[in-house]
Write a structure and sequence with these properties.
OmcB-like_DUF11; mainly beta; Immunoglobulin-like; five-stranded antiparallel β-sheet; 4 domains
Length: 492
C-alpha cells in the first residue's frame, strides 16, 4: 500500500465496513462447504448519506465473472467523498464502472469533489474468483459534511415623493406632503428629510427657509409621511425641493412645483351725489379683474338702503329683500363688466348703498355710493314798486317777497339786487343785514323753511330820467340756475 493510500485513513471521520458475501457455488463440491462468515452489514445510513452494496450477478463458479454494485446517496450536501474498496486474496479485480481514481495492490479508490442532496453515485465492480471459498470485500466511505449558515447583507435605498397643490392663492395656507420610503432590503438609519422652501413660500419659522424632519431608522419596506404646512407669500412660479439622506450616504430627492396667483377683483360704484325725492337715481357698479387668474361665478350684490325703493336693474338682477344680485359667470384678467341699478327715495335723507363682490375663493371687495335725497325746490319771487312813474329826485319803494314752495325741506341762499344806472340806494329793511356796494345790495343766507317766506323793502332814489328799476337774483344749490326777477320803473 502506497503512502498516499495510507494517508487517507487517518482523516476518515466516519468509517464503516460494508461486506458483501459472495458464494462460489460448486455444483458437486468435492469438499465440505464452510459456514458463511460473519460480516458487517451491506447497508449504512446517516443523516448525511447512505451506502448500500448488492450482488448484481454471480455464477458462484471458480474462474467465472461476478459483479456487484456500491451506491452512495447524498441526503444532504457533502464534499470530498472517498470510497475505498479492498479485495481479499483469491478474488481477482477485472474492471469497474467508473474506473477507480487510484489502484494499489488489492485496494481501489473512487473520489468525488461534492454531491448535492438527493443525488447518488454508483460503482459497479467486476471480479473473478481464482479459488473456492467465501470472499469478503470491504468498503470504506468517508465524506466531509457541508454546513451552511446564511448571512445576508442588504443595501438601503431611499425613495422620496412630494405632493401638493399646483396652484395656490396669494396669502393662502397650503400643505405639501412628503412620503419617504425605504425601497431597499436593509434598514436605513438616521434618516433626515430636509425641505428647502423657495422665496415665495413661508414655513412656520420665518427666520429659516429649511424645514428639517428627523425620521430615525426606516426599516426595509417602511414608509413615513410628513406634512409641511406653508403660506403662499409671494406671487410667481416656485419649485419646492426636498431631499432625504441617511448615515449610509443614501439620498433621494423630490420637487413639487406651485404657481402662486392672486385672484383679485376691484369694484367701484358711482351715482348722483344729490337727487330729488321721488325721482330715479341711477347707479353703475363696475367690476374689474385685477388679478392673474380667470374669475368664475362671481357673486355681485347691491344693497337697497332703507328709505329707498327699487326701480330696476340691468342684466336681470334678482331682487330678494333689500338686495339685488347677479352672478358673473366669467371675467378674464383685465376684463371689466358693469351692472346698473335704479332706485328712488321716498323722503329726504342721505342714503348710502353698499355693493359687494364675492369670489369663488371666498375673497370679497366692497364699494359704496352716497346720495343726498332732497325735496324738489320751488321758489316764488315777488317784487312790486309803490309808484310808477316816478319824478326825478323822488323815492320809490320796492316790496319784495320770497316764498319756499317746497313742502319737504328748507332752503338757504343769497339774494342780490341791482338798481338801474339812473337810480341809487337809499335804505333796506334793517333786520335783513344787507350789504350795499354802489347800486348793488346783497343779502346773505336767507333761510326759508318748507312753505315759508320772507318779505322786506328796498327804498331807491330816482336820479335821472329814463327807464329805471331793480333786478333780483336768488340762487340755491338745489336750483339748476338762479331765479331772476326784474321790476321796471319809469323816471321822468
Amino acid at each position: 500500500m502506497t503512502t498516499k493510500l495510507r494517508s487517507i485513513f487517518p482523516i476518515l471521520a466516519v468509517l464503516f465496513a460494508l461486506v458483501a458475501p459472495m458464494r462460489a457455488d460448486v455444483a458437486q463440491p468435492s469438499y465440505p462447504r464452510p459456514p458463511e462468515p460473519e460480516t458487517a452489514p451491506s447497508r449504512f445510513g446517516s443523516d448525511l448519506y447512505t451506502v448500500d452494496k448488492i450482488l448484481v450477478e454471480s455464477t458462484s463458479v471458480v474462474g467465472e465473472m461476478a459483479r456487484y454494485r456500491i451506491r452512495v446517496e447524498a441526503l444532504g450536501d457533502i464534499e470530498q467523498i472517498r470510497v475505498l474498496e479492498n479485495l481479499p486474496a483469491g478474488l481477482e479485480y477485472v474492471s469497474a464502472e467508473p474506473a477507480p481514481a487510484e489502484t494499489k495492490g488489492g485496494s481501489y479508490m473512487w473520489t468525488w469533489p461534492n454531491m448535492t442532496r438527493g443525488t447518488s453515485q454508483d460503482i459497479v465492480i467486476t471480479v473473478r474468483p481464482t479459488q473456492g471459498g467465501w470472499f469478503v470485500t470491504n468498503t470504506k466511505v468517508a465524506v466531509v459534511p457541508t454546513l451552511g449558515l446564511p448571512i445576508f447583507a442588504g443595501t438601503p435605498k431611499l425613495e422620496l415623493t412630494k405632493t401638493g397643490p399646483t396652484q395656490a392663492e396669494l396669502g393662502d395656507d397650503i400643505n405639501f406632503r412628503l412620503t419617504v420610503s425605504n425601497v431597499g432590503n436593509a434598514p436605513a438609519r438616521d434618516v433626515i428629510v430636509s425641505d428647502t422652501l423657495p422665496a415665495g413660500l413661508y414655513g412656520p419659522d420665518r427666520s429659516s427657509n429649511v424645514v428639517t424632519h428627523r425620521v430615525g431608522t426606516l426599516a426595509a419596506g417602511e414608509t413615513r409621511i410628513i406634512d409641511v404646512p406653508v403660506k403662499a407669500g409671494i406671487k410667481g412660479e416656485w419649485d419646492n425641493r426636498a431631499n432625504a439622506y441617511s448615515t449610509h450616504h443614501v439620498q433621494a430627492n423630490a420637487v413639487a412645483h406651485v404657481s402662486i396667483v392672486e385672484s383679485k377683483v376691484s369694484i367701484t360704484k358711482t351715482g348722483p351725489d344729490r337727487a330729488f325725492v321721488f325721482s330715479t337715481g341711477g347707479y353703475a357698479i363696475k367690476l374689474t379683474n385685477e388679478g392673474d387668474t380667470v374669475l368664475e361665478n362671481i357673486q355681485l350684490t347691491d344693497e337697497i338702503p332703507e328709505g329707498a325703493r327699487y326701480i330696476g336693474s340691468s342684466y336681470g338682477g334678482a331682487v330678494s329683500g333689500n338686495h339685488v344680485s347677479w352672478t358673473i359667470d366669467r371675467l378674464a384678467p383685465g376684463e371689466s363688466t358693469i351692472r346698473e341699478v335704479q332706485i328712488s327715495a321716498q323722503r329726504p335723507a342721505t342714503l348710502t348703498a353698499v355693493a359687494s363682490a364675492k369670489l369663488a375663493t371666498g375673497r370679497t371687495a366692497h364699494a359704496s355710493a352716497t346720495t343726498e335725497w332732497e325735496g324738489a325746490p320751488g321758489v316764488l319771487t315777488e317784487i312790486v314798486d309803490d309808484v310808477d312813474p316816478v319824478k326825478t329826485g323822488t323815492r320809490v319803494t320796492y316790496s319784495i317777497k320770497i316764498t319756499n314752495q317746497s313742502p319737504m325741506r328748507e332752503l338757504t341762499s343769497d339774494a342780490v339786487f341791482t338798481l338801474a344806472p339812473n337810480m341809487s340806494v337809499v335804505e333796506v329793511t334793517k333786520n335783513m343785514r344787507a350789504e350795499v356796494s354802489g347800486r348793488t345790495i346783497t343779502i346773505k343766507n336767507i333761510s326759508l323753511k318748507a312753505r315759508g317766506s320772507v318779505s322786506f323793502k328796498i327804498v331807491a332814489k330816482a336820479d335821472e330820467p329814463g327807464i329805471g328799476g331793480i333786478r333780483f337774483e336768488f340762487g340755491s344749490g338745489l336750483l339748476p340756475r338762479p331765479v331772476v326777477k326784474e321790476e321796471s320803473t319809469y323816471v321822468y
